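Model: Ready when you are.
Researcher: Fold this.
Model:
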Amino acid sequence: MKVILNVDAITYPLTGIGHYTQALGQQLAHQPSITQLKLFSADQWIEDISTTAEHNQWLSQIRQHVPFKALALNLYAKRRAAKFKRLTVGLHDHTFHSPNFVLMPFEGRSVATFHDLSFIHYRHTQPQYRLQFLDREIPKTLAQADALITPSEFVKQDIIKQFTYPAHNIHVTPLGVSADFKPYTEAQCAETLQTHQLQHKNFILSVATTEPRKNLSRLLVAYTQLPETLRKSHPLVLVGSKGWLNQDLEQQIKSLLNQGQIISLGYVNQQQLQHLYAAAKLTALPSLYEGFGLPIIESMASGTAVLTSEDSAMQEVAGGHAMLCDPLDVHHIAGCLQQMLEDHTWLLNAQTNGLSHSKQFSWDNCTNKTIQAYG
């Protein structure tokens, strides 16, 4: 089997889709059934996936310094499609996989990964330029795709409901978690904890991009409703890069930072993230909507209990081993946080059962199911 993988999602800081693309590319390179793997990014072939982020540095700079709105996005998409068409002449015997929703025109077999349908259900949480782009490109992708890949059964059923796309051509490939996410000892986490002035198992961790869909605003309000003694002994630590439509949220975070009620670390490297997961008392991901929710499994694999939403794919991914909250009910979120912090028996069971549950999520399994989708 010959495969072309689009890897332009691998740009720093890596998002969930970036991690997925990187892990998948690394795994595909070592599969005996893949006789040729070609990596395409933006306007060129990439020889080594480990250098992809370096090649994509200009994309990162554009996203940071240029308002990546309709005109810029459309010009980039046209340039990428034109270059891809020229470079793939004669490669119709390959399977082309776009791991980030949108396919470029291709003469051979095409597969796209749909991580979620938030652009349909939560349009108010996304910038207008992105919605316009997806509204135009998704129908083309659905018409072209020979198969779709989704990370959860929830998303598969959502696609069937929203689009006239054959159910048997939608493949569920749950995401994986790196073996580097594991329970670390207090001593192993010490340097990271000292760097950020945190105490082992005495803080609440939230790993999420600062964008509306992650529901951080309600989480912050819920946290401030906890008893003062719990807040003093368990600060809320925010980890994640800046997203879109976050002006009000940033002001809310700034206000709570000034009051000394929360800690915001921004984007941290992978080793620090692994240590933070393992050292946290619990991880909170009360998103409005997720197609999977990678922090759920990363936290469980680190031996840390999880609070997440009862909505969309999060309940499916948690598998009955997380505390579930109503993401729209601040009081319910606060009550769940307090229960987790005070009920040590529940917390210990969640840690043990979550760790066991996480072992079924591997990038090997994700890759094998992906290759099946390639046909």
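Researcher: Now this one.
Model:
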Amino acid sequence: MRQIQGILFDSGDTLVRPKAGEWFPKQDFVDAFRARGVTGANMDRFREALDAGLRYLNKHHALAVTEDIEREQFHTAYELILRALGISNPTEDLVADILRPFEEDVGMEPFPDTVRVLRRLKSAGFRMGVVSDNWPSLGRRFHTMGLRSYFDAFVISALVGSSKPCESIYRVAVEEIGIPPEHLAFVDDRPVNAATAERIGMKGIVISRYGEVPDTDLPVISDLDGLIAIVIPETARSPSSRGTQDPR
């Protein structure tokens, strides 16, 4: 069995979750509309409107090499969402009200097991990294949550111009963490991303935090305790180990 020396993690829905239960909360819009006395918004179209904003962000986020550019992109995306909701001329104040929670709060929180498991892995000598399809502010948000210090590599797609499952972003992470792929594990909530890691030599692991049954032949864990059972093999025999559906 190959020895795992380092672990690369996805961020959202792997290490952290949205505080409001969703990454782009509908409630932020509702609150801003009430505060500004805005009427006429067709909130029944919120999902469709959100998709319009997300398409813009996904198309442009690789150009967001600073937090200022990131903010400009989110400002434009929120304008697109508002227009799709039927607000043809959204004011700067309205957009600012909706952006404020994103700017002033981290907007995410670690899963209950995240810090405990990261401490366990760090104390066991593993080097760790994050590989996330995200914007430049993620590093700051991880600092605020007290998570950044656990990671030797921190690779954000917007800063390297490549997104998962493109192999190039994985190779940047391999270089940063300084461990050959065959001695790395990679944990992601999307099977396609874990499969790419497996293809370039890592041990791909899928985490399914919310009870879904992913379509994959890779090992599936339901929490990070399941990861410990894989990368520290002796724990797999411990009665306290849990969360592993396929600890191969």
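Researcher: Key takeaway?
Model: The two ends are 10 Å apart (CA to CA).
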